[in-house]
Design brief:
The complex is a heterodimer of chains A (about 300) and B (about 575).
Chain A: H1 11-18, E1 20-22, E2 36-52, H2 64-70, E3 74-82, E4 85-91, H3 106-124, E5 128-134, E6 142-146, H4 151-159, H5 169-176, E7 185-190, H6 197-204, E8 210-217, E9 230-234, E10 240-243, H7 249-270, E11 274-279, H8 284-295, E12 297-299
Parallel strand pairs in A: 4-5, 4-7, 7-8, 8-11
Antiparallel strand pairs in A: 1-12, 2-3, 5-6, 9-10
Helix pairs in contact in A: 3-4, 5-6
Chain B: H1 5-20, E1 26-30, H2 34-42, H3 46-71, E2 84-88, H4 105-119, E3 126-128, H5 137-144, H6 147-150, E4 166-171, E5 186-191, E6 198-207, E7 217-225, E8 231-239, E9 244-253, E10 257-263, E11 271-277, E12 288-292, H7 294-297, E13 316-322, H8 325-328, H9 332-339, E14 343-350, E15 368-372, E16 384-387, E17 398-399, E18 406-410, E19 413-414, E20 430-434, E21 437-438, E22 442-448, E23 451-457, E24 467-470, H10 483-498, H11 500-510, H12 515-518, H13 530-533, H14 546-565
Parallel strand pairs in B: 2-3, 2-4, 4-5, 13-14, 13-15, 15-16, 16-24
Antiparallel strand pairs in B: 6-7, 7-10, 8-9, 8-11, 11-12, 17-21, 18-20, 19-22, 22-23, 23-24
The chains are: A alpha/beta (about 300), B alpha/beta (about 575).
Chain lengths: ~300, ~575
């Protein structure tokens, strides 16, 4: 049953979203005109720079005025604009909703809301959006979508998603990018509580996509009644882990979670990728206009 | 000794029980255990790992110290120096029993010594009495396990104790026991004195006749002691070689001395024995004393001479009692005795019935009585040789079987190891012998089927003299024509007059006629507390060896390490 309640955004908030666009450092030339400046110079309208003429260049772009002044053949370069291929990999594994009920699904709902918002922004800026929910493998891929009219289709698709299975980001990356796809922006939305996270991100590196990792966390994952011996049961794998209570164990667990997050952040930063921490305890507006905007969005028109 | 596997098994069961009674863990579903596993893995990081190793080292060290400390490992103990000496008083009073039929003082001493050995530092060495051989605790316990064999037989009352760092002297404080110990050696006297009732003969000796010229007298003194201080009833019997001559009931107060002069003129030749019996008496060795007839032995010594046939120079005097003296002359037995130079037939008398009056002529002194086809109603108090005794008369260990028919058999079984058959071969000899029952105290020297052909009796020291019975007629046997008969008679003369057991025991008994020995409570030592007597009956056991305990500690430490490795403890 579709759950559209998670996508109810205030009109004012939507209006603010529409003024944003996805930020990418390497925008490949798209097949459709878009609002993203290409990473290379091409046949756009905005002058960018000169460069020396080499044999084979289009003589129509020679700046004769510059030739008369500097006695050198200089080629005028223009910014090229195109659309952006956006791939949203949404974690739908069991760990995103470990317990039933609205509180147990907070991470998944937040992830879907983020995916919806990013999809909304991307389609509004004429980008091409591909939605790829995954757990152990990729579920049915939606897209690429193009044009703002596809927003409702995307939201409806997200509303019908459910959780289950283990997380295998590495397998997901292989499946999604098994076919030749355009280089673009890959957005991974996940709690990253999997041993396959690093492996999956590593697989993206040779594909030369721009990557943004959005980690959705719930502080309840770091809470456990450890007043006596406890056997922890993994919601995804069913593996059990026996621990003995210790006074500062939960505090150490929090520090371990932070250390884990910083490891992934450092890995992304080293590769020029974006990393956004999205705790479910924060309001979505704060997240979208704060962390997401700082790491992934920029002010457009 | 506890088997080696038992402590290990118990330890394993305890550890298993500990694991079984551990509270079960609660199951808690979590989104993912990734962070938890990272947290546990983080403990292996350098700092945490150092702390973990340190705690494991401490746990192992504690377990090791506990094991080594409990086991008293030898390398931690100063046991490598001089041994510990255990000296046991060998005086006769150490044989005195404890009240109510308990073990003897020497056994109590052995129990105390075993306790000392068990509680001594591991690795200690021990010496026992004057033997300088150092013993391990196990060897010492083996020696002390049988005190009657190795401890009380040491006759030396002034033994030189080997050099030791500590000497334990086990004594009841009675008797001339003074061990010689190196100066400066720590000496611990362990009292095994347990007061008890005793009455003993402290003197039994002949003395020259004071007023009568007809015979010697014997002086008998009896001393009684009772820690309760009550009256001690004593039954006294004095017997010669034939019968009991004196029997009296005495009532002696504790510490009383009974003295009697006994006229030995009416006593039969041979040893004279005095015995006493006292209810609750714990020291039987002084209840008997013997002496030789001074008028015949020519000595006042209380020690009987031990006579050995091979060193004898005078012929043995043989008195023959024959049913028919006429038929004895010329018989195979007469010829054999005549041919034996070691015997001298001093008289041949006719046998009389049980109701016949005794012969008027005095019976000459003899060493051996030989009965030819005759047997007295009461066995004589001297060695006897029975030749073809009558069927209906008890003699020589063969009891009559009524109307037992005579039948011929061949001797098919002999006790070839017996000195009587040295150089004698009887197997296959046809004999005509009656079926008779063998006296339980006697044994068959030669048997023909189920019938005893020759019987020998070697009774205990106070049971009478030796005897030999040839149950078949020599005159109707081919043995008379064989040299085996002469050899058998020579052996019989030697064996019958040896009597080493009788004289030997009498010598031992008379050696206890020591007034000090009889005073078994007269000691300056403190008596043994009653609660220590309870341990005498049960053998002392060593605790677990240090190897066993160390292994158990290692097992525990291993389990501790395993639980650490598995992250089961914090």
């Amino acid at each position: 049953m579709a759950d559209h309640s998670v996508f109810t955004f205030e009109p004012a908030f939507l209006a603010r979203l529409e003024r944003l666009r996805l930020l990418t450092r390497r925008v490949p030339a798209g097949g459709f005109k878009g609002e993203h400046r290409a990473s290379h110079l091409g046949s756009g309208l905005e002058f960018a720079d000169y460069r020396p003429y080499v044999e084979g260049d289009d003589v129509r772009h020679l700046d004769w005025r510059a030739y008369l002044r500097f006695d050198r053949l200089l080629l005028r370069m223009f910014e090229e604009h195109g659309d952006l291929a956006v791939y949203i990999l949404l974690d739908c594994s069991h760990s995103m909703a470990p317990t039933p009920g609205p509180r147990g699904r907070r991470k998944f709902d937040a992830a879907r809301r983020i995916a919806a918002a990013l999809t909304y922004i991307a389609l509004a800026t004429l980008d091409r959006v591909t939605l790829a929910p995954y757990s152990g493998h990729v579920h049915q891929v939606l897209g690429p979508l193009h044009g703002s009219r596809q927003v409702w289709r995307a939201l409806d698709y997200l509303a019908n998603l459910d959780t289950g299975g283990e997380t295998h980001l590495d397998r997901t990356v292989r499946e999604v990018f098994a076919a030749r796809r355009r280089r673009g922006l890959v957005i991974v939305i996940s709690d990253l509580l999997s041993d396959t996270t690093e492996g999956g991100l590593d697989l993206l590196l040779p594909l030369r996509h721009d990557v943004a990792v959005v980690q959705v966390t719930d502080h309840r994952d770091l809470e456990a009644p450890l007043d006596r011996d406890t056997t922890l049961v993994d919601s995804e794998t069913g593996d059990s882990l026996r621990i003995h209570g210790a006074p500062n164990l939960l505090h150490r667990l929090e520090r371990e979670a932070e250390a884990h997050r910083e490891e992934i952040r450092a890995r992304c930063t080293a590769r020029g990728w974006s990393f956004i921490h999205a705790p479910v305890e924060a309001s979505f507006e704060e997240l979208a206009l704060g962390a997401l905007r700082r790491g992934l969005l920029s002010r457009g028109r | 000794m506890m088997p080696f596997w038992l402590p290990l098994g118990i330890t394993a069961l305890l550890v298993l029980a500990i694991y079984l009674i551990r509270p079960t863990a609660q199951a808690l579903p979590v989104a993912s255990t990734v962070l938890w596993r990272r947290l546990l893995a983080a403990r292996k990081r350098r700092r945490d790992r150092l702390r973990w190793l340190l705690s494991l080292l401490l746990a192992t060290t504690v377990a090791g110290f506990l094991s080594v400390g409990a086991s008293r490992a030898p390398w931690l103990q100063p046991g490598g120096g001089d041994p510990i000496a255990l000296a046991f008083d060998p005086s006769p009073t150490m044989q005195a029993g404890l009240p109510d039929g308990g073990p003897s003082r020497i056994e109590l001493a052995a129990s105390e010594a075993r306790r000392i050995v068990v509680e001594a530092e591991s690795g200690s060495r021990f010496t026992v009495n004057a033997d300088p051989t150092p013993l391990t605790s196990t060897e010492a316990l083996a020696v002390l396990s049988d005190p009657s064999a190795g401890l009380s037989n040491a006759p030396d009352t002034e033994p030189a104790i080997p050099t030791a760092r500590r000497v334990h002297v086990f004594t009841d404080g009675i008797g001339p026991y003074t061990p010689i110990v190196d100066p400066g050696t720590e000496t611990n006297t362990v009292s095994v004195l347990v007061p008890a009732r005793n009455a003993g003969i402290v003197r039994f000796a002949t003395r020259p006749p004071a007023t009568r010229a007809t015979g010697p007298e014997a002086l008998l003194e009896i001393l009684a002691t009772d820690p309760a201080g009550g009256t001690v009833p004593v039954e006294l019997t004095v017997a010669d070689s034939e019968t009991i001559r004196i029997r009296r009931q005495l009532e002696l107060e504790s510490g009383d001395r009974f003295t009697a002069l006994i006229d030995l003129g009416s006593f039969a030749p041979g040893p004279v024995t005095a015995r006493i019996a006292t209810p609750g008496d714990v020291f039987p060795l002084d209840n008997r004393a013997g002496l030789i007839d001074a008028g015949r032995a020519g000595t006042g010594s209380t020690r009987l001479p031990v006579r050995h046939a091979r060193s004898r120079t005078e012929p043995r005097r043989v008195l023959v009692v024959a049913r028919s003296p006429g038929s004895f002359a010329g018989s195979a037995a007469a010829l054999a005795l005549e041919a034996d130079a070691s015997v001298d037939v001093v008289a041949v008398r006719a046998a009389t019935g049980a109701d016949d009056p005794p012969p008027e002529d005095p019976i000459p002194a003899a060493d051996i009585a030989t009965f030819h086809r005759a047997a007295p109603a009461i066995p004589p108090a001297m060695p006897a040789l029975y030749l073809d005794p009558p069927q209906a008369v008890t003699a020589g260990g063969l009891s009559p079987a009524a109307d037992a028919p005579l039948s011929q058999h061949r001797i098919d079984r002999t006790d070839a190891s017996h000195p009587l058959l040295a150089g004698v071969s009887l197997l296959g000899l046809p004999v005509v012998v009656a079926a008779r029952e063998l006296d339980p105290q006697c044994s068959a020297l030669a048997s023909a089927g189920d019938r005893t052909a020759i019987a020998v009796c070697d009774p205990p020291p106070d049971g009478g003299p030796r005897s030999l019975a040839v149950a078949f007629d020599l005159d109707h046997s081919s043995l008379a024509q064989r040299p085996d008969l002469a050899a058998l008679f020579q052996n019989a003369a030697s064996w019958l007059t040896e009597t080493p057991a009788i004289t030997g025991d009498l010598t031992t008994d008379t050696g206890l006629q020591d007034e000090r020995a009889t005073r078994i409570n007269d000691s300056t030592l403190e008596p043994v507390p009653a609660d220590r007597l309870a341990d005498v009956g049960s053998p002392n056991r060593r605790p677990w060896s240090w190897r066993t305990l160390a292994l158990a500690g290692l097992l525990l430490a291993s389990f501790e390490a395993i639980t650490f490795f598995r992250g089961l403890t914090l």
